[in-house]
Write a structure and sequence with these properties.
Helix 2 runs antiparallel to helix 8 and helix 5 packs antiparallel against helix 6. The chain is mainly alpha-helical. It is about 85% helix and about 0% strand. The chain has one domain. This is Flagellar motor protein MotA. Its main location: membrane.
Length: about 210
């Protein structure tokens, strides 16, 4: 591996840095976007069951918010009704939407960086290719003929950087699109959960 890096020249170091950052982001997003941390499957039904007869105590709402991102969204709606017993349906929906936007921001964290790496890696590879071509042309100059070592070094820089850039860019783009799809699925789940919670919570405002 060290011999490959040495043959690829200095342009490969930015690509190595991009590969390390991309790998770290992919691992972090896999951990952060797990179903248990975002939207546990039975959480909404449990909340509806617990709040069937009355609103929960504040400590229960705090535990719900600490459960997951979906719990935070549902807790935001519960807090709105608890703090403002006469809240209108439009204001309750705004509370859910605000909490949903905050949750979306947390789920989309680092995804732009991963997408930037996917877009920038081929350009860095192209830079390495250009530098390799410069080395190739330089090896053909002079009155004494070509320099075989410089020619081989230029070819190595061009090919290794191009290949390494594609090795970084393709998986980064695949995981970027995969995580984007996961976030969209979670946001759809949040919207459906909010649609079920709004009429459920409005019963308590009507009673009061």
């Amino acid at each position: 591996m060290f011999s490959i890096i040495q043959a690829a020249g200095w342009p490969i170091w930015p690509l190595i840095a991009c590969s390390i950052v991309a790998l770290a982001l992919i691992i972090e997003r896999f951990s952060s976007l797990r179903v248990a941390r975002i939207a546990p499957p039975k959480l909404l039904d449990e909340v509806l069951s617990v709040t069937r007869a009355s609103l929960p105590a504040p400590d229960v709402v705090n535990k719900l918010a600490a459960n997951s991102l979906l719990g935070q969204v549902l807790a935001a709606g519960l807090r709105s009704v608890i703090q403002e017993p006469r809240i209108s349906e439009s204001n309750l929906r705004i509370a859910f939407e605000t909490a949903g936007r905050a949750a979306a921001h947390r789920m989309e964290r680092y995804l732009n960086t991963l997408g930037t790496i996917a877009a920038a890696a081929p350009l860095l590879g192209l830079l390495g290719t250009v530098i390799g071509m410069i080395e190739i042309f330089a090896s053909q100059g002079g009155s004494t003929g070509g320099n075989p070592q410089q020619l081989a070094h230029g070819i190595s820089i061009a090919l290794y950087n191009t290949a390494f850039a594609l090795i970084i860019a393709i998986p980064s783009l695949m995981f970027y699109r995969y995580f984007r799809g996961r976030v969209d699925e979670y946001l759809l789940d949040f919207e459906q959960a909010a649609e079920r919670m709004v009429p459920h919570l409005m019963r308590f405002t009507a009673q009061r």
